[in-house]
Fold each of these.
Amino acid sequence: MMKTIAATLSLQNIRFQHLVWTLLTMTLFVLANLAQAAANLEIDTPAITALKSSMQARHAQLLPHYNSGAVGLTANGLIEVRDTTAVPLKDRGGINSLVSAENTDRNALYKEIAKANGHPEWEGEVRQTFAGRWIDKAQGGWYYRSGSDWAKK
């Protein structure tokens, strides 16, 4: 009888150890896949290079509007006209088209980065990451959306 109980307990112990090792292996596998699941935001393709070049060229035109507070950064990775009165009268006609062109490129950039990573469904996460980066890298005095309000950096 004692041998039967000991054999049963030993078998249960082996099953328990096997279960623990299986769960541990599965957990490590999931964690490894999660670590690989992060998008490479520095990935480069011809389309991404073209978008970055276009945005870089436009930045010189946008810079005075960021500095004056006329244009601000949004929480969704775009820019927005914040205060048209801060735009010189002669430039007011072009500010909306300038902001629109920038936002078109930004939207395309987020989409291309997600696509280049082989995960178009990551576009939202790429956008949110860039939105945070744009705000973090903004110069002092620039505006950004904080909830529904504008905040000055």
Amino acid sequence: MIKNVSFLFFCLLTVLFCGCAASGLPVNFVEGTVVFEGQPLSDALISFIPKINGNGIPAIGKTDENGHFLLTSMQGGQPNQGAVAAEYIVVVTKNKDKPSRMEYSTGIDGKPMGVGIYESLVPEKYTLPTTSDLTVTVEKKKRNQFNFVLDKK
């Protein structure tokens, strides 16, 4: 469960990194679907994280009620529909709406502070770039279509 908090921090850094990226890299249309347990996975966050040796810029999307997503990336602080041509690790997250428990620690001011721990609704292996086995290559000047079927384990 702590990994979910770590992933949220990772997403924040990704967004900050995206805003600082150089503008002008061509983006390519990317869409797809996500299925889990035989059903479209709605309201899930899809993140394309560039592989370490890649040239990509992180891109994100959210699935609709049919499990369909469109990716958006940021360059120079501006949103662009699509992703830069590169190899990516794909991360899929969807959490329960309410925290399953709270963890408390002492804040800088010495007062107790709580952090909600949200239960993941998808297998944990898909929620972090270090454990996800989903990888794709976004190709130049192409309408890229990716369909993911998530396993229970």
